[in-house]
Amino acid sequence: MSNTLLRVYPSELKLPFELKKANSGCIELVNKTEERVAFKVKTTNPRKYAVRPTSGIVPPGGSCGITITMQAPKEIPQDYQCKDKFLVQSVVVQEGITNRDIVPEMFSRVPDRVVEEFKLRVVYIPANPPSPVPEEDEEEIADSEIDHEVFRQSMIHPASRQGHTSGSQPSYDEEVSMVNSEVAKYVDENKKLQQELELLRERNQSFGGFSPKFVLFVFLLFVLVGYLMTGRKV
């Protein structure tokens, strides 16, 4: 079997195999010469396959793609082995010959005519190869990502979440400034409380150790006397 006119690629016809579903494969014919080459594709099981195109002419240095479709299989063959074969015949033709002029007699072996033949066997391949990553692993990865997202959201400052809900999310610098202002406020209030406590202690000592109730009673008495005196003047 010689192969000097057309290069057939690939050397095997690999077809995806799937029950009750038709699948296709492709082969490519490349003209290796400077002549016009006619081809014809034959198969050992023509009822099982549809070939497009079955014949044609490849220009010098050109190529032609052929699609082969297998009918939907009804059962799985033993060990996925297929005994079907294809035959690609090629012959040099003269100028002026078109696809319509191609007839079976052109590929008959006669004196002074070189007819080359290339045989391809059919190889079944899985239509849906298994995924390299198991589905369970993908689910575990997805769950871990969700848990991480929930944990990250729970660590966000409440003020930041409130700002995000209202449409304005404060930045990190703004949050630090707010915290610093709150701390300064608490420090000032603490200082004021300490100052008031010192004043109360001084007042208690100035009254010679009198009890707070006695001091309060004297203060209210002065207020009442002052009110009465003011009312009399009016």
Automatic annotation (TrEMBL):
Keywords of the record, alphabetical order, are: Coiled coil, Membrane, Transmembrane, Transmembrane helix
SUPFAM superfamilies given in the database record: PapD-like
Give a yes or no for keyword Ligase in this entry. Answer: no
Q: Could you list the residue ranges forming a coiled coil in this record?
A: 176-203
One term under GO cellular component: endoplasmic reticulum membrane
Species, as recorded: Lolium multiflorum
Protein known as: MSP domain-containing protein
Query: Does the UniProt entry include the keyword Transmembrane helix?
Result: yes
Q: Which family does it belong to?
A: Belongs to the VAMP-associated protein (VAP) (TC 9.B.17) family.
Against InterPro entries, the record matches this protein to: Ig-like_fold, MSP_dom, PapD-like_sf, VAP
PANTHER family, alphabetized: VESICLE-ASSOCIATED MEMBRANE PROTEIN-ASSOCIATED PROTEIN, VESICLE-ASSOCIATED PROTEIN 1-3
Q: Which domain of life is it from?
A: Eukaryota
Which positions carry the signal peptide feature in this UniProt record? none
Domain called MSP: residue spans: 5-125
Q: What Gene3D superfamilies would the database entry show? A: Immunoglobulins (2.60.40.10)
